[in-house]
Design brief:
Strand 6, helix 8 and strand 7 form a beta-alpha-beta unit. The protein is α/β, with parallel strands linked by helices. Strands 5-6-7-3-8-9-10 form a 7-stranded mixed sheet, sandwiched between helices. Helix 6 crosses helix 7.
Protein backbone atom coordinates (compact mmCIF):
# COMPACT_ATOMS: atom_id res chain seq x y z
CA UNK A 1 0.00 0.00 0.00
CA UNK A 2 1.27 3.47 -0.87
CA UNK A 3 1.59 5.48 2.34
CA UNK A 4 3.25 8.67 3.41
CA UNK A 5 4.95 9.14 6.77
CA UNK A 6 3.12 11.97 8.53
CA UNK A 7 4.92 11.63 11.82
CA UNK A 8 8.26 13.13 10.83
CA UNK A 9 9.69 16.33 12.25
CA UNK A 10 9.53 17.99 8.84
CA UNK A 11 5.81 17.45 8.31
CA UNK A 12 4.80 18.52 11.84
CA UNK A 13 7.13 21.29 12.89
CA UNK A 14 7.61 23.34 9.75
CA UNK A 15 5.09 25.54 8.00
CA UNK A 16 7.47 26.39 5.14
CA UNK A 17 9.18 23.61 3.21
CA UNK A 18 11.41 25.81 0.98
CA UNK A 19 12.86 29.20 1.88
CA UNK A 20 15.17 31.27 -0.32
CA UNK A 21 16.64 34.52 0.96
CA UNK A 22 18.39 36.93 -1.39
CA UNK A 23 19.74 34.08 -3.52
CA UNK A 24 22.04 34.70 -6.45
CA UNK A 25 23.50 31.95 -8.61
CA UNK A 26 26.11 31.70 -11.34
CA UNK A 27 27.67 28.82 -13.27
CA UNK A 28 30.90 30.69 -13.97
CA UNK A 29 31.20 33.16 -11.04
CA UNK A 30 30.69 36.08 -13.42
CA UNK A 31 27.34 35.86 -15.20
CA UNK A 32 24.49 35.55 -12.74
CA UNK A 33 21.41 33.58 -13.81
CA UNK A 34 19.61 34.49 -10.58
CA UNK A 35 19.88 37.80 -8.72
CA UNK A 36 18.75 38.27 -5.11
CA UNK A 37 15.70 36.02 -5.40
CA UNK A 38 13.61 35.41 -2.27
CA UNK A 39 10.81 32.84 -2.02
CA UNK A 40 8.84 31.13 0.72
CA UNK A 41 6.99 27.96 -0.28
CA UNK A 42 4.53 26.75 2.32
CA UNK A 43 3.88 23.06 2.84
CA UNK A 44 1.03 21.68 0.71
CA UNK A 45 1.21 24.51 -1.83
CA UNK A 46 1.11 24.06 -5.59
CA UNK A 47 3.70 26.69 -6.47
CA UNK A 48 4.26 27.59 -10.12
CA UNK A 49 7.32 29.38 -11.47
CA UNK A 50 6.79 31.01 -14.86
CA UNK A 51 9.30 32.62 -17.20
CA UNK A 52 10.88 32.60 -20.61
CA UNK A 53 13.68 30.21 -21.58
CA UNK A 54 16.95 31.25 -19.96
CA UNK A 55 15.27 33.26 -17.21
CA UNK A 56 16.69 31.06 -14.41
CA UNK A 57 13.70 28.82 -13.68
CA UNK A 58 15.55 25.50 -13.90
CA UNK A 59 18.38 26.87 -11.77
CA UNK A 60 15.84 27.57 -9.02
CA UNK A 61 14.87 23.89 -8.91
CA UNK A 62 18.52 22.80 -8.81
CA UNK A 63 19.04 25.06 -5.80
CA UNK A 64 15.93 23.71 -4.09
CA UNK A 65 16.93 20.05 -4.39
CA UNK A 66 20.55 20.55 -3.40
CA UNK A 67 22.04 19.93 -6.86
CA UNK A 68 23.54 23.42 -6.80
CA UNK A 69 24.85 25.77 -4.11
CA UNK A 70 24.00 29.50 -4.38
CA UNK A 71 26.75 32.03 -5.04
CA UNK A 72 25.22 34.14 -2.27
CA UNK A 73 22.14 34.08 -0.10
CA UNK A 74 20.52 31.19 1.76
CA UNK A 75 18.42 28.21 0.62
CA UNK A 76 16.66 26.26 3.36
CA UNK A 77 14.82 22.97 2.95
CA UNK A 78 12.75 22.20 6.05
CA UNK A 79 14.69 25.04 7.72
CA UNK A 80 17.98 23.24 7.09
CA UNK A 81 20.92 24.50 5.05
CA UNK A 82 22.38 22.10 2.45
CA UNK A 83 24.87 19.85 4.24
CA UNK A 84 25.37 16.28 3.03
CA UNK A 85 27.24 15.48 6.25
CA UNK A 86 24.05 16.20 8.19
CA UNK A 87 22.00 12.98 8.48
CA UNK A 88 18.72 14.85 8.95
CA UNK A 89 19.33 16.91 5.83
CA UNK A 90 20.19 13.78 3.81
CA UNK A 91 16.96 12.16 4.98
CA UNK A 92 15.03 15.28 4.00
CA UNK A 93 16.38 15.59 0.45
CA UNK A 94 15.73 11.88 -0.12
CA UNK A 95 12.05 12.89 0.10
CA UNK A 96 12.31 15.24 -2.87
CA UNK A 97 10.83 13.85 -6.08
CA UNK A 98 12.56 15.63 -8.97
CA UNK A 99 11.41 15.44 -12.61
CA UNK A 100 13.81 17.07 -15.05
CA UNK A 101 12.94 18.48 -18.46
CA UNK A 102 14.40 15.37 -20.11
CA UNK A 103 12.40 13.10 -17.72
CA UNK A 104 15.45 10.84 -17.24
CA UNK A 105 13.66 7.64 -18.23
CA UNK A 106 15.42 4.46 -19.37
CA UNK A 107 13.81 4.15 -22.79
CA UNK A 108 14.63 0.49 -23.45
CA UNK A 109 13.37 -0.65 -20.06
CA UNK A 110 9.79 -1.37 -19.10
CA UNK A 111 7.44 1.08 -17.45
CA UNK A 112 7.54 -0.97 -14.24
CA UNK A 113 11.35 -1.11 -14.14
CA UNK A 114 11.51 2.67 -14.58
CA UNK A 115 9.08 3.26 -11.74
CA UNK A 116 10.93 0.87 -9.41
CA UNK A 117 14.04 3.06 -9.75
CA UNK A 118 12.30 5.40 -7.29
CA UNK A 119 12.52 2.69 -4.61
CA UNK A 120 16.29 2.12 -4.94
CA UNK A 121 17.27 4.44 -2.04
CA UNK A 122 15.24 2.23 0.35
CA UNK A 123 17.16 -0.94 -0.55
CA UNK A 124 20.43 -2.05 0.99
CA UNK A 125 23.59 -1.66 -1.06
CA UNK A 126 23.60 -5.19 -2.52
CA UNK A 127 19.92 -5.27 -3.46
CA UNK A 128 20.17 -1.75 -4.87
CA UNK A 129 23.16 -2.69 -7.06
CA UNK A 130 21.44 -5.86 -8.32
CA UNK A 131 18.01 -4.20 -8.48
CA UNK A 132 16.48 -6.96 -6.36
CA UNK A 133 13.13 -5.47 -5.41
CA UNK A 134 11.05 -7.10 -2.65
CA UNK A 135 7.44 -7.98 -3.37
CA UNK A 136 6.04 -5.09 -1.34
CA UNK A 137 7.96 -2.56 -3.45
CA UNK A 138 6.71 -4.19 -6.66
CA UNK A 139 3.14 -4.10 -5.30
CA UNK A 140 3.56 -0.43 -4.44
CA UNK A 141 4.84 0.29 -7.94
CA UNK A 142 1.71 -1.28 -9.42
CA UNK A 143 -0.46 0.83 -7.10
CA UNK A 144 1.32 3.99 -8.20
CA UNK A 145 1.00 3.02 -11.86
CA UNK A 146 -2.71 2.49 -11.32
CA UNK A 147 -2.91 5.95 -9.77
CA UNK A 148 -1.35 7.55 -12.87
CA UNK A 149 -3.43 5.41 -15.25
CA UNK A 150 -0.66 3.15 -16.60
CA UNK A 151 -0.97 -0.17 -14.75
CA UNK A 152 -2.13 -1.97 -17.91
CA UNK A 153 1.09 -0.83 -19.63
CA UNK A 154 3.53 -1.83 -16.87
CA UNK A 155 5.45 -4.25 -19.13
CA UNK A 156 5.60 -1.95 -22.14
CA UNK A 157 8.94 -0.43 -23.12
CA UNK A 158 9.10 3.29 -22.43
CA UNK A 159 10.13 4.15 -25.99
CA UNK A 160 6.75 2.79 -27.17
CA UNK A 161 4.76 5.31 -25.09
CA UNK A 162 3.27 8.64 -26.09
CA UNK A 163 4.64 11.90 -24.74
CA UNK A 164 1.88 12.19 -22.14
CA UNK A 165 2.39 8.59 -21.01
CA UNK A 166 6.15 9.11 -20.58
CA UNK A 167 5.41 12.02 -18.28
CA UNK A 168 3.08 9.81 -16.24
CA UNK A 169 5.91 7.30 -15.84
CA UNK A 170 8.20 10.08 -14.57
CA UNK A 171 5.52 11.15 -12.08
CA UNK A 172 5.06 7.55 -10.91
CA UNK A 173 8.81 7.10 -10.42
CA UNK A 174 8.93 10.28 -8.33
CA UNK A 175 5.96 9.07 -6.24
CA UNK A 176 7.81 5.78 -5.58
CA UNK A 177 10.29 7.84 -3.57
CA UNK A 178 7.41 8.54 -1.13
CA UNK A 179 8.24 12.25 -1.37
CA UNK A 180 7.18 15.24 0.67
CA UNK A 181 7.65 17.49 -2.34
CA UNK A 182 7.56 17.19 -6.14
CA UNK A 183 9.77 19.41 -8.30
CA UNK A 184 8.85 19.30 -11.99
CA UNK A 185 10.71 21.21 -14.69
CA UNK A 186 8.49 22.04 -17.69
CA UNK A 187 6.81 18.65 -17.45
CA UNK A 188 4.01 19.58 -19.87
CA UNK A 189 6.07 21.50 -22.41
CA UNK A 190 5.60 20.31 -26.00
CA UNK A 191 2.25 18.70 -25.13
CA UNK A 192 -1.06 19.80 -26.61
CA UNK A 193 -3.41 21.61 -24.20
CA UNK A 194 -5.64 18.55 -23.59
CA UNK A 195 -2.75 16.19 -22.78
CA UNK A 196 -1.05 18.88 -20.69
CA UNK A 197 -4.13 19.22 -18.50
CA UNK A 198 -4.45 15.44 -18.18
CA UNK A 199 -0.87 15.31 -16.85
CA UNK A 200 -1.51 18.26 -14.53
CA UNK A 201 -4.64 16.51 -13.22
CA UNK A 202 -2.52 13.44 -12.37
CA UNK A 203 -0.18 15.64 -10.32
CA UNK A 204 -3.13 17.41 -8.70
CA UNK A 205 -4.69 14.06 -7.67
CA UNK A 206 -1.37 12.77 -6.31
CA UNK A 207 -0.80 15.99 -4.40
CA UNK A 208 -4.21 15.68 -2.77
CA UNK A 209 -3.84 11.96 -1.99
CA UNK A 210 -0.38 12.22 -0.44
CA UNK A 211 -0.57 15.80 0.88
CA UNK A 212 2.42 16.82 -1.22
CA UNK A 213 3.95 20.17 -1.98
CA UNK A 214 4.42 20.68 -5.72
CA UNK A 215 6.74 23.22 -7.36
CA UNK A 216 6.22 23.36 -11.11
CA UNK A 217 8.15 25.19 -13.80
CA UNK A 218 5.88 26.52 -16.58
CA UNK A 219 6.11 28.76 -19.61
CA UNK A 220 2.30 29.07 -19.87
CA UNK A 221 0.90 31.66 -17.44
CA UNK A 222 -2.69 30.55 -18.03
CA UNK A 223 -1.92 26.93 -17.13
CA UNK A 224 0.00 28.03 -14.05
CA UNK A 225 -2.91 30.15 -12.83
CA UNK A 226 -5.33 27.29 -13.48
CA UNK A 227 -3.55 24.80 -11.20
CA UNK A 228 -1.36 26.72 -8.76
CA UNK A 229 -2.03 28.34 -5.39
CA UNK A 230 0.88 30.71 -5.94
CA UNK A 231 2.58 31.86 -9.13
CA UNK A 232 5.99 33.51 -9.29
CA UNK A 233 7.33 35.10 -12.47
CA UNK A 234 11.06 35.09 -13.19
CA UNK A 235 12.52 37.53 -15.73
CA UNK A 236 16.24 37.77 -16.46
CA UNK A 237 17.10 36.15 -13.13
CA UNK A 238 14.83 38.37 -11.01
CA UNK A 239 11.54 37.47 -9.36
CA UNK A 240 9.39 40.27 -10.74
CA UNK A 241 5.92 39.12 -9.74
CA UNK A 242 4.19 36.79 -7.28
CA UNK A 243 0.46 36.08 -7.17
CA UNK A 244 -1.63 34.21 -4.62
CA UNK A 245 -4.54 32.36 -6.27
CA UNK A 246 -7.72 30.91 -4.76
CA UNK A 247 -9.87 29.34 -7.47
CA UNK A 248 -10.53 32.11 -9.97
CA UNK A 249 -9.65 34.88 -7.50
CA UNK A 250 -6.28 36.57 -7.01
CA UNK A 251 -5.92 36.97 -3.25
CA UNK A 252 -2.64 38.87 -3.18
CA UNK A 253 -0.40 40.51 -5.72
CA UNK A 254 3.26 41.42 -5.37
CA UNK A 255 4.93 43.12 -8.32
CA UNK A 256 8.47 44.28 -8.93
CA UNK A 257 9.65 45.95 -12.11
CA UNK A 258 6.96 44.72 -14.52
CA UNK A 259 4.80 47.29 -16.23
CA UNK A 260 1.03 46.85 -16.38
CA UNK A 261 1.33 46.12 -20.12
CA UNK A 262 3.86 43.32 -19.52
CA UNK A 263 1.65 41.74 -16.88
CA UNK A 264 -1.37 41.79 -19.18
CA UNK A 265 0.69 40.20 -21.95
CA UNK A 266 1.31 37.21 -19.67
CA UNK A 267 -2.41 36.75 -19.07
CA UNK A 268 -3.26 37.08 -22.73
CA UNK A 269 -0.68 34.70 -24.22
CA UNK A 270 -2.44 32.34 -26.64
CA UNK A 271 -2.77 28.77 -25.39
CA UNK A 272 -1.64 25.81 -27.48
Amino acid sequence: MVTQNTASFSSIATLSIIQMRNVSASYDSQNFVLKNVSMNVKRGTNYAIVGASGSGKSTLLKLMNGMMIPSSGVVLYNYQKPDLKNKEYKKSIAKIGYISQTLGLVKNSSVLDNVLIGALPRLNAVKSFLKMFPKDEIDTAHEVLNLVGLDTKSNRKVHMLSGGEKRRVAIARALMQKPDILLADEIVSELDSVTAREVMDVIKDAQRKFKLTAIMIHHDMNLALEYANRVAVIKDGDKVLEIGVDGEQIIDFQTGDLTQEEIMEMYNEPQK
